[in-house]
Specification:
Multidrug-efflux Transporter Regulator, Chain: A, Domain 2; five-stranded parallel β-sheet; globular; Methyltransferase, Methionine Synthase (B12-binding Domains), Chain A, domain 1; alpha/beta; about 280 residues; binds cobalamin
Amino acid sequence: MSTTDPTLLTLQEAADAVGCHYQTLYKRVRSGELPALVAGGSYRISRDDLDAWLHERDAAKGAVPDRAERDWPRQIETLLASLITGDARSARNQLDRLGAGGVTVAELCDRLLAPTLARIGELWHENELSIADEHRASRIVETLLDRATAARPKSGPRIGSAVIATAVGDRHSIAAQMVAAGLQAEGFAVHYLGAELPVEEIVNMAKREQADLVALSCCVAERGGLTATITAVRAAGFPIMVGGSGIGRAEALELGADRFGGSIAEAQLLARDLVRSGA
Ligand code: B12
């Protein structure tokens, strides 16, 4: 392995990712608790080893670690700059660093990706960004979500299975992709269908995969496709949860959703709840 291997971190890089002083990691390396290589006269830590160490430490504590509070406004500005300039590599590195520091998929979505996309939306609205700028940024976010999902396969028994989509008439697939990433990280088998699928296709997939629930994301004001999908999914007997910036709780429940959620963290809790309650 060469010292330029991007998966090998210096002590300082690893400490930055974790949000602690480098001396803390130095002591863990010296005690043998955290595996490290010596390259060019200094320690190098692999991302996999760092992740495993963080995981063990969290498990031993039995609680969420008290890592330094993330500076989310700064993280958002950094990601925004990468998305605006189309710098996919910097965006990827930023998320990798946060992931190595123990940030969850739900936090990445709720605290970083969604607010950054909202800023993209504002700039687009104010004609500061072109449609092409917005499309390039959206595409980068899709690849970041693919990567975040792939990096965190949850071990242990499967909690349930979920079919996830947006309703016909709503092309905002990224929100649904975030729900899929969040549920997958939680231990669900996810069947993510993206946008613009006819209602019967969503229902058929739920039947074929014997889904425990259907999750729909809604980012637009249009209601025809959403109403038809909720009605058909309910008629087929599948529990359904709805969320997204285009709809509120009262309306979603009124349209027939069993649950409404306003974040990916909530989507994870609600999905577990739907599986447990079977409705
Ligand atoms: C990217 C984008 C697009 C892309 C989408 C690309 C893609 N592959 O997704 C494209 C270019 C296709 C697009 C098109 C349009 N867009 Co657009 N778009 C956006 C933008 C910038 C980001 C959307 C996004 O992905 N946000 C991130 C998501 C994840 O955030 P979120 O919805 O808040 O979701 C969070 C929670 O609500 C929750 N959640 C979400 N879903 C679910 C589901 C469940 C079950 C649960 C529990 C929780 C949950 O978790 C998420 C994370 O915290 C927004 C700006 C914004 N403020 O969001 C506009 C925005 C959504 N678009 C808008 C508009 C108007 C349009 C167009 C009509 C523009 C046009 N004139 O053509 C078309 C509509 C096309 C259509 N029929 O769908 C408006 C919507 C207004 C409205 N409510 O109707 C917005 C708000 C921009 C604006 N300020 O005007 N858009």
